[in-house]
Fold this sequence. Notes:
Elements: E1 2-4, E2 7-10, E3 23-26, E4 29-31, H1 37-43, E5 47-49, H2 55-58, E6 66-69, E7 73-75, H3 77-84, H4 90-101, E8 106-110, E9 114-117, E10 122-126, E11 135-139, E12 143-145, H5 165-175, E13 182-184, E14 191-193, H6 194-218, H7 225-231, H8 242-262, E15 266-269, E16 272-275
The protein binds zinc ion (ZN).
Amino acid sequence: MEVIKGIKVIEGLNRGKFPYCNVVKVGKVVIDAGAGIDIMKKIRTNKLILSHLHPDHSSGAWLFKEILAPEGGKITLDSLANRFVTPDLVETWKKFVTAATGLRGFECERYEEGVIMEEPEIIAIPIKGHTADHHVFLIEQKVLFGGDVDLTPFGPFYGNPEADPYLFEKEIDKLLNFDFEVFVSAHSKPIFGKEEAVSKIVKFKNKIKEREDKILALLEEPKSIDEIVELSPIYGKKPYAKEMLDFFEKVMVEKHIKKLEREGKVREENGKYVKA
Ligand SMILES: [Zn+2]
């Protein structure tokens, strides 16, 4: 799909939904590598740029020679697993991502915030909170590739220990001030005009507060973190990899509860949390 002249979006498997993503091809550069291994093999060029190291964006990176990423050096399944889950889930995580996405280890060079390529012009802008290394890209001053500010109805993901929903909330706001014509999403319908993108960005960001309110409402009666996760205020359904999705939901719930506790809206009582 041509976004504007010279910039194409290639839709990932399963319409780019997790564990795949939509990728962008601009000139001889590909941005993100999670469209599915067979698709990535077809669009392979020498040069790849990664928005961040989540497997649904980096799974096909091993097919490329030259990789620019927010982190440099050797990236292995183990280094990623240890970053994204707790030690007890490392093997489960590795099994799931290799089977689901075809991820393998790869080596990359680090890029810094700002212009990372001049021809075509690609500017890397950190939007933290989703992960510590998440970036969006402004391409040729016209196209904004939003990475995991993906505008899906699910909303923002912050299920890794390093994530921070409230930082993500602030960072997402930055996108509203950018000058762009077209927005490209990594996981939904790929292309949005500016006006639609702006309203969807606001909706997407508001999900964080909606989840907080939902969790607070559950705490009219005392509940442990596990009891909240069982009620699943964030995912609702977990049709696959339940153990891992439960972990992600637990991390997300804990981050909300910590903040509510700091604000005095929730207090802990005998290992359970209750509205103050
Ligand atoms: Zn991600």
